[in-house]
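S.,

Sequence below, as promised.
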Amino acid sequence: MSNSVELRVSTLHKKFSRQVVLSGTDVTLHTGEYCLLSGGNGAGKSTLLRILAGLEKPDSGHFDLGPGPMKWKHCKSDLQSQVLYLHQQPYMFDGTVGYNIAYALPPGVTRKKRLELVLQALDWAGLGGRAEAPAKGLSGGERQRVALARAWLRKPRILLLDEPTANMDLEARRRTMELLKSLKTEGISLLVASHDPTHFTVLIDTHVHLHHGKLTCMDQQQNISLTPNNVIPIGRVRA
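The prediction came back faster than expected:
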């Protein structure tokens, strides 16, 4: 994992009506880092991911993707182009699996090149031979692999995943985890939100827990808080 920073966010605040979801939260993601974000249902994990992806406006906070700290509204378009958010239940368009994967490609790609890239993505995701299958007939695990294949084609700097293995059987979970590992080796930073961290402990570099709007770094081996009274940024914990 590289020490270079892909995204740094400071003093992030968000509330809905009187419910405080994020309270002065700091976030730092490093290149090629696999970070697990745990927290109970309703803790604010999805809200945090959507803010980082440029999809939900925070009440306040500063974001730095490289040029320096700025407000969310000034870097919203950069977040949306460089950070990719995958929902727990990936959306499938009407049409084939191949059509859904090709959606990730930019305009201007020739028909021949599109077909070549789609076939490469299908093979990468373990979906070879499924190009003409109806996408909406796929299982949950297969849908997640289609979504990851789209992400693989887009090559974002940061990939945010919301409960990516929820309701999967053991084999589907194993396949998904292998793809996440592959994305990490390509230098993509991964932030994976899950209320059940036990499935991810083998692969993660860092584990943080969101509770009452605060992020706390967790010891990966004993699964206990290293500094229970302090807010710790997402990222590698340095001595």
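The first helix runs from residue 45 to 52.

Coffee later?
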